[in-house]
Amino acid sequence: MSVDTELVEMMSAVFAAHREKYAPGEGVAELWDQLRELGLVRLTGAEECGGSGAGWAEAAELLRAAAGHGVTIPLAEHDLLACWLLETAALEVDDARRTACLLDADGAARGVPWVTDSERVVVLWRDDAGYRVADVDTASLTVIPGHNRAGEPRDDIRANLSALIGTPLPDNVFEKFTRRAALVRAIQVCAALDRILAMSVAHTTERTQFGRPLAKFQAVQNLVADIAAESALARAATDGALAEALRSDWSSSQLDFLVAVARSCVGHAASVVVRNAHQVHGAIGTTREHRLHEFTMPALSWRSEYGSVAQWDDKLTEYAARAGADGLWALVTGAGE
């Protein structure tokens, strides 16, 4: 999943420059216009549909760059979920900013990302004939604004299903949508954890206590070591799931298990990393002026979106129980593939 280093550096530079100019959550419209000019708003869209024709490897680096600089913007929801659904259904994709969600039987969805910041919402629902998708004007929806603990828009919506004319989709598109959404959040959490690790190392190296750097104290060393270990485990599990998704075009029989592994590892890692980082930083890490909260709060929010930690743990338990003692090794190693 190698990506051109110059492209990665350019992505990082864009978000770094934005954060130097704007406070968190500000200047989103200006940044969106800049990203559109650079071809990054629809990075993975087909070129014949107005996209840049890149792949998930590049998209993952874009998400990491944004999360790693503390920039929250609906790139994943727009490109990897909403516009992907429209392209898959052979529907027109224009320049409107979009998000996507799954509606229940009553036409409702809770905690949908970025609805109030989007011009259109791509809705997915199931009727008696199967799954359908429609591109809906946000103004036609009933929207109750809300936010997650990181301050990002997470809105409740309701649509009139009887008034929607949806395009039929095969069941495997819904399966791919849920996998893609789950991995998006895993990638973003991993980027936040990596930044928290870097901040913790820098803080303990530069700050002194009792005449020596914090990094010289064994208790502090243990806290930072646990941050590093958990971050590495989360990244390895997420990269493994993403590699299998790309290898199989999101159709591997083992992919659901690997996504569950990634999300479980990411969820538990976030608990350890956030707790230890705030212990390492002490009182200064709880202030609004310090940037630590720009990464700890999103990490805690994102790990519970598109499935809670408990739900992913339950899914892993189900896989292990079905495999049994004789099949567990093959499940973990993929030997049965």
Automatic annotation (TrEMBL):
Q: Which domain of life is it from?
A: Bacteria
- List the Gene3D superfamilies hit by this protein, alphabetically: Acyl-CoA dehydrogenase/oxidase, N-terminal domain, Butyryl-CoA Dehydrogenase, subunit A, domain 3
One MF term in GO for this entry? flavin adenine dinucleotide binding
Against InterPro entries, the record matches this protein to: AcylCo_DH-like_C, AcylCo_DH/oxidase_C, AcylCoA_DH/ox_N, AcylCoA_DH/ox_N_sf, AcylCoA_DH/oxidase_NM_dom_sf
The Acyl-CoA dehydrogenase/oxidase N-terminal domain sits at: 17-86
Task: Provide the cofactor list for this protein.
Answer: FAD
**Which SUPFAM superfamilies is this protein grouped with?**
Acyl-CoA dehydrogenase C-terminal domain-like, Acyl-CoA dehydrogenase NM domain-like
PANTHER family xref list: ACYL-COA DEHYDROGENASE, ACYL-COA DEHYDROGENASE FADE28
Q: Where is the signal peptide?
A: none
The family note in this entry says: Belongs to the acyl-CoA dehydrogenase family.
Name of the protein in question = Acyl-CoA dehydrogenase
